[in-house]
Amino acid sequence: MPRFFPILCSLAVALVLAGPAARQAIAEPTFSFDAAPGKLPKTVVPHHYAIELVPDLTQLTVVGSETVDVELREPDARLTLNASNVTIAEASVDNGAQQAEIALDAGSETAMLAFPKPLPVGLHKLRLSFASHINSFARGLFYVDYPAGQGTKRMISSQLEPSDARRIFPCWDEPAFKATFALTVTVPRAFMAVGNMPPEREDAAGSDLKRVTFATTPRMSSYLFVLAAGELERQTVQAAGVTVGVVTTRGKSDKGRVALDNAAKLLAYYNDYFGIKYPLPKLDLIAVPGGFGGAMENWGGITFFESRLLFDPTSNAETARRGIFAILAHEMAHQWFGDLVTMGWWDNLWLNEGFASWMQEKAAEHFYPEWKTWLNGYGQKQFAMTLDARRTSHPIQQKVADHSEAQTAFDAITYNKGQAFIRMLESYLGEATFREGIRSYMASHAYRNTTTADLWKALEAAARKPVAKIAASFTEQEGVPLITAETNCVGGKQQLILKQERFAVVPASAGGADSLPQRRWQVPVAIGTAGAAKPSQMLLLDGDAEVMAGPCGEAIKVNFGDIGYYRVAYGPVDGALIAKALPAMSPEDRVNVLADDWAMVKAGQAAPASYLALVSELDAGDRRAVWDQVISAFSSLNRIALESPERPALQAYARALLRPVLDHIGWDGKPAGEDDETTLLRTSLINLLGELGDADVIAEAKRRFASFLQDPAALPPAL
Question: What is the pTM of this model?
Fold first, then answer.
C-alpha cells in the first residue's frame, strides 16, 4: 500500500462542502400564457415595439421614445410594465387621447401608468418618452473603452439576459411576452450600428450623426434584443441564403475567419437538424473587446467577448480554435432552441442551456470527429456529478420566483447535467427518433413559448417511450444514481443483478450520505461485454433488475460507452474482471471506469488501492482523455496534501507513473506532424510534473523559457 494512503483516505472530507437541503421537485404542464410564472399582469400583451434611441457616449445617457402596440384583454385604467433605472417623461395612449400619471417602483423594477379612464378591450398604441443610462458593467446598454493606436476608443453593446432590456427602454421584460421590434438608433457618422436585423436605411442627422433604421424582427422575447455600435468593420459570407458576418473593431476582422467559416457550416447543419431554416436574413457574430466574459445568443446578432471569437494562429494554441467552435456552436444552436422557441419562464433555463451545450458537442463530433469531443469533454459531466453528489445540489429544474433568482440559475448543473441528461436520452431513444421529436417540437412551437413538458410530449410521440417519467426523475430531483452491478453464474450464463441507490459525498461530520433522502430514477442503462464494439442491450432501470448477460467469467461493462448520467459500482469479483479487461475497452469506457472508481474513493466507498490497480493497467500510449482523468486525480491529491508529511511519497509515486507518458510523446511534436490530442496531453503532463517537482521537467522548462525570451518563435503556442 502506498505511503500516501492517508491522503486518499481523507480526500472525501476535504472535497465536500455541507450546505442547505435541496429544493423540492416540481412538475409542470405544457405552456399556457395565462399560467406562465412572472410578475407582470397577463391582461396587457405587447405585440410590436417601434423604438428610437439616441445614445450619448460622452454623457453615458440614452434619450429614447417608443410606440408600443398593445392589446388589452380586459378593460383597465392601469398598465404595468418593466423599467429599471429609466426615467419616463411622458406616457400617452392612442395618439394622445389620454395622458398617464407615471409611478416608478425601483424595488420591483416596474412602471405603473395610470390613465384617467379605463382603456377598452382591444388594440391600443402606447407612446412613451424616456431616458436611460449606458453602464460601465454588462447589464443593459454598456460601454467598452479599448486600445486603438496611441489612445483609446469607445463602443457600446448590450447584454440583456435575463431581464435587462428594461434598463434600456420600458418594456414587458419577461420571456412569455413575445413581440416584434423595430429599432432606429442615432450614432456618430463614423460608427457602424448592429442590431437584430439588417439596416433598412441610413439618414444624416446633423453634421456628425446618422440615423440608422433596422428592419423589424420576428416575434421574440425582449432579452434577445441587441444593439452594438462603434468604429467597427464586418467580413461576410453567404450561407444557405443568409448573410453571415463577423463584426470587430477596426483592423481585427481578419482574425474572424475561423469563426466565419465555422458559422457558415453550422448554419446549414442546424437548418437540416432542426428542420426549419434560420428565419432571419443575417447573422452577425459581434466581437466586443471587454465588458463581459462570455457570449450571448441575441437573435441575429450574437455578442462574444473578443478573445472567445477571434483567432490568431501566431499566438493562439489549438485549444483556442476548439473553444471558438464550441462557443459558436452553442450560441448558434440557441438561434433555434431558445430564440425561435423560447422557454416560458426562467425555471426552464436548464433546457435552453443544457440543449445548446449538448448540441455544441454533437456538432463538433459531426465536423471534427478527430477531436473526440465527447471523450475529451468527459470532465464536464464529471464536474456536474461531483456537485450533484453534494448536499448543496439542486434539481436541474428549479423554481425561479423572479428575475433576480434567474441571475443565479446559470451554473454547472444547469449546463453540464442538462447536457449529459439530453445525451443519455438521445442514446436511449435513438438518434433518428430523437431528431424527429425535436423537429416536431420546433415546428409546433416556432415563435412561441414552451415548457419542458412540451418537449417531452413531442419526444414521447416520436419514440413511444416514457420520456416524461425519465425526464422527471433526472430534472425535477437532485442527485446522482448509483447502479451496483454484481453477477452470478447460472447454467454457464451470467445473471447480472442491478440495484440503484443515491450516490452522495457527505462527510460524517455533516451526517454522512445516509442523512440525505433516498431517490429513485428511471435510468437508461447500456450493458455490454467489455471491449465489444457496441452494447448488447439497453434497459430502463426502475428500481432493481436481473438480466442475463453473457458467458460466465466475462467482464460485463455497465454504462457502456459512458453515455449515462450515473455512477457504477461493481462487486469484488466483477470489479477484478473489469480491471483486467480495462486495456481491451474503448477509451470512453476506460475513462468511465476510472472516473467512477475515483469518485467512489473520494466518497469513502472504495479502497484507494482499487483505483491504483486500475491505473496500473494503463499504457503510456493511451488516449489523452484517459491520462487526463489520472492527471486530474493526482493534481487534486497534490493540492490537498500541501501540508501532509506523505506528500513527498505521493509526488514520487505520481512522477513515476506519469513521467513515462511524457517520455513516450516527448517534448517536441513529430517532424511529420502529430495529432492535436498528443499536443494537448503534453501540456497537461508538463504542468503537473512541474507541480510534482520533477527536476528534469523543471530544468527543461526553464531552458525552453530562456530560449523563448530570446526568440518568441522558439516555443510553440501550445507550450
Answer: 0.92
